[in-house]
Design goal:
single chain, 97 residues, mainly alpha
């Protein structure tokens, strides 16, 4: 078992929860007209769900396919993190009015 997979699984689970908080906050504060933020949060959610699934599957296997799944999970996780970074920049700089 590769020691990186559990870390990807845990981190993507935590960041997935953060994405759900962002989506819920947008609805709670009735800022649904901020389509770019909700769309970015939905895409980040999809990335983290995919990363979590691939990481879990890589833990269940013990061969080269497991390493390939883990590498894909890594890249998908980075993609989700980039989307969260963009959301943070939008919120911080108040780009979307």
């Amino acid at each position: 078992m590769n020691p990186k997979s559990p870390h990807i699984l845990n981190a993507s689970s935590n960041l997935l929860g953060l994405c759900f908080i962002v989506l819920t906050s947008l609805r709670l504060f009735k800022v649904e007209d901020r389509v770019p933020m909700s769309l970015l949060a939905a895409v980040a959610t999809s990335f983290f769900m995919t990363s979590k699934l691939l990481s879990f599957l890589s833990l269940k296997r013990d061969n080269k396919f497991s390493q390939k799944l883990e590498k894909i999970a890594d890249y998908v996780f980075i993609g989700g993190t980039i989307f969260l970074y963009v959301i943070t920049i939008i919120v911080t700089l108040n780009i979307v009015k």
